[in-house]
Amino acid sequence: VQLIGGHPSIPLIATAQAVAGVASAVSLPNLAPLVTRAVPGPGPERQKANSLMGVAKSISQLAGPALAGALIWAAGIGWVFVLDSAAFAVSATMLLLVRLNRDGPPPGARRAILAGLVEGWAEVRARDWYWISLIAHATWNFAANILLTLGPLVAVTRLGGQGTWIAVTQAGGIGLLAGSLLAGRARPPRPILAGNLVLARYALPLTLLAIGAPVPVLVAGHNAGAAAQAAAQ
Predict the structure, then answer these.
(1) What whole-number distance in Å separates Cα of residue 227 and Cα of residue 233?
(2) CB 58 within 8 A of CB 177
(3) For labelling, which of 37, 42, 91, 198 has a CA lying 20 to 30 Å from the CA of 31?
(4) What does DSSP assign to residue 26?
């Protein structure tokens, strides 16, 4: 009621975000195994499946800000959260309907959390390419969250207002869509190295934001960085 009819409080929003974070922490590690079981066999078919998932995500991120803005204008900010919650419910329902390949690898045996962590850490240390990639992606996630946190503040206070950040996010959605389409066709000889090198381009929008680049340049940079993000993932 407070969310729809009044002014949502920071504790309420923080609690909702904490719940969403827990849900993401559970769902993200299980997404790749789900694709593996739904699309049998390695190779182009699974790459196409990952690319299609990226395209769907990019379209939603492109249309989402525009839909949210229209809904805020027409009904109020609380209904945006209601619609967002309903979208997650629909997503969960559709995932329950996914038909999995029964001939795929069986699920792993249950084990103690600490034992699993020890075994996983040993496997990571045994593969240089893996832990280097983990560090690279951890660095990227740290940088991306800085952009998502400070970007709106800088855009509103120094770059002309909310319209600037809307333009940046829309350009990012277009970049994500383009990168996802490209990822479905690319065949690099060393995909892990290529993905990490491409992902380094995400430094471009951060650099442009730090130096106070003109808005059109910042929009173009965010578009390129988002395209690199989608292509690498």
Answers:
(1) 10
(2) yes
(3) 198
(4) H
- Taking the whole predicted model, whether its pTM rises above 0.70 is answered as no
Contact criterion met (CB below 8 Å) for 232 and 198: yes
Euclidean distance between CA atoms 135 and 141, whole angstroms: 10
Distance, in Å, from the CA atom of 140 to the CA atom of 135, rounded to the nearest integer, reads 9
Residue 126: both structure tokens together: 């045994």
- For the chain, give percent helix, strand, coil, nearest 5: 80, 0, 20
- Is residue 225 within 8 A of residue 175, CB to CB? The reply is yes
Which residue carries 């069986």 as its tokens? 106
Residue type, 166: I
For 199-233, the pLDDT digits (tens) are: 777 788 888 888 878 888 888 888 887 777 766 66
Q: What is the pLDDT of residues 157-204, one digit of tens each?
A: 888 777 788 888 878 878 777 777 776 676 777 777 777 777 777 788
Whether residue 199 contacts residue 150, with contact meaning beta carbons closer than 8 Å, is answered with: no
CA distance 192 to 83: 37
Q: Report whether 36 contacts 46 (CB < 8 A).
A: yes
Half-sphere exposure of 70 (CA within 13 A, CB side): 5
pLDDT digits 0-9 by tens, 42-83: 667 777 777 777 777 777 777 777 777 777 777 777 777 778
What whole-number distance in Å separates Cα of residue 230 and Cα of residue 233? Answer: 5
